[in-house]
Design goal:
The structure is a homodimer of 323-residue chains.
Chain A: H1 3-16, H2 24-34, H3 41-53, H4 61-81, E1 86-87, E2 90-91, H5 93-96, H6 99-117, H7 122-149, H8 157-183, H9 187-214, H10 217-220, H11 226-229, H12 235-243, H13 246-257, H14 263-277, H15 279-299, H16 305-320
Antiparallel strand pairs in A: 1-2
Helix pairs in contact in A: 1-3, 1-4, 2-6, 3-4, 3-8, 3-16, 4-6, 4-8, 7-8, 8-9, 9-15, 13-14
Chain lengths: 323, 323
């Protein structure tokens, strides 16, 4: 099986989904944000996971897209909360329309996600819905923690990892679990799927933080050092704040408190502090740790080796990405 | 059976619901808005409906509260959109906390509503969820229409009624339908329940518009004429705009366009225009029409007469309310 088959199946269904018709102001923003693209990573994971256990992976297509619609709902509402002007290089919904429309379209997107999930077979519905509902609440909890952290300077590593686990990783875990639930696998297998997805997800998110500082400027695609310029509380900064003392701590605090500065100079100076504290190595270790855990979770899943290989290759791409 | 038994059962369960714990900022606003009170009309309707067909009406308690939590979620988000400072005499969530918290707490409330609904028996889940999801989308559609109407002066009666049907009445319909679905009644009966609730709901909402102008100031509890002062596009105003012509139309337009005016004078003048156009009578006719339809729907339901009488008495209170 070529993974492109899954991508095509998702694209095809995405073109046919009716989110709703009237009033237009409510449904047009849904079509807009869903058409901004993205890697469709989550629904792809659901299909690959279902295919591990069944030839009838097509029955997972609409539930898989429930996860994608839910993810895009969170983006629409997060963009309001973060006052973000752009999403994937295009105006965000609250900018293109207005705040009220972004709130209400987002609400109906969450309802749409449930609608798509209702496509699963009746005997599997309760578990699928229970787990989705728990996951959805956790994603909201993660977003609230993220907002809380903006005004705190004493966030610990453990708190930060719990925040990214809730905000982003549990949904990757659920995306894989869902494929198993639809295929009707046992509890132990769904647990391996969920934890595998979640661990890869945490590693993936930490790698995001790492690449922002240590990414190859040519391959990275965004400005390297953006997080440093914005004082964004990443894993690297939290680790540095925990490790630095004496003159180094003072120097770091100075940069964090400077209202006006030369951007390149700040990036260079803070990166140098990270270097002296060994932040790159310790972050890489942590990332590899989560990735290793994830692959160990996958090892424990009993499935056809070729099919499992598809999933593992996909996860490897996430691990080895440089942008 | 005394209806107070249903009220007590709901209150008791409401005190025990765990919406969630961490982070506190996310879940505290849910407890706050749920504790502002209200008549708990919707969940009460679900319990009375279930009791029509089964002694085991207690199994409908948590699903009934799903409807109440959903309703309060819509209030939390509508209050942001309407920039409302107060809800039941207390600060709204976005005023007491902030906009972002009101958005995100609302989101997790919608998820909580689904969680409560998952309490229904597995073999009934798909229908219950399908109908809830359709209803939830319609409520959002109604809210969007309501916002659209704010800037339009050519809203027709039919459009207005469709808006209130979606925004408020379908949820009353669903509240009754849900009791039947949980009790496992046939499609014809659920249709009578749904349509009965919806028709009573439309009449109820139109009566709201009527009482605002023609309510007894002593019994009404709010300032009579509030809608006239605010130029609120009620059924009465839409009907008046459709019927008035010549000098009367000019006089009405003058009052609508006046930026500064004596409130009592405007209320008196616009009410006099309504009187001359026979708006009170035609609105009352329309209300009675919807109520009659609703009671005809109830007539067609086969159930124990004493139990049916409970529901009918409850609906009568809604019909005959003066505040």
């Amino acid at each position: 099986m070529n993974p492109a088959v899954f991508v095509d199946a998702l694209q095809n269904e995405l073109q046919h989904i009716q989110y709703g018709q009237n009033p237009l102001e409510l449904y047009e923003p849904i079509r807009y944000i869903m058409n901004l693209g993205g890697k469709r990573m989550r629904p792809l994971m659901t299909l690959m996971s279902a295919y591990l256990f069944t030839d009838d992976w097509q029955k997972a297509i609409r539930p898989a897209l429930a996860v994608e619609v839910f993810h895009n709902f969170t983006l629409m509402h997060d963009d309001i909360m973060d006052q973000a002007p752009l999403r994937r290089g295009q105006p965000t919904v609250h900018e293109k329309w207005n705040h009220n429309i972004a709130i209400l379209s987002g609400d109906v997107m969450l309802v749409n996600a449930y609608q798509l999930l209702l496509d699963v077979e009746a005997d599997k519905l309760k578990r699928v819905m229970n787990r989705f509902t728990r996951t959805a609440a956790e994603v909201c909890e993660g977003q609230q923690l993220d907002m809380n952290f903006e005004t705190r300077w004493d966030v610990t590593e453990a708190e930060y990892i719990e925040m990214i686990r809730l905000k982003t990783s549990v949904l990757l875990g659920y995306a894989l679990e869902l494929g198993g639930l639809i295929a009707g696998v046992d509890d132990e297998t769904t647990r391996h799927l969920y934890e595998g997805g979640m661990n890869i997800g945490i590693g993936f998110q930490l790698k995001d933080d790492l690449l922002d500082v240590y990414g190859d400027p040519v391959k990275f695609g965004k400005q390297v050092g953006g997080d440093i310029i914005a004082n964004k509380k990443t894993f690297l900064l939290i680790e540095a704040l925990e490790k630095a003392d004496g003159a180094l701590r003072e120097e770091l605090n100075d940069w964090l408190n400077q209202a006006e500065f030369d951007k390149a100079e700040k990036v260079q100076a803070v990166t140098a502090i990270y270097d002296r504290l060994g932040i790159r190595q310790s972050t890489e270790e942590r990332i590899n740790n989560y990735f290793d855990h994830g692959f160990t979770n996958f090892d424990q899943i009993r499935a056809d080796p070729d099919r499992k290989n598809l999933l593992i290759q996909f996860a490897r791409q996430l691990v080895e990405r440089e942008s």
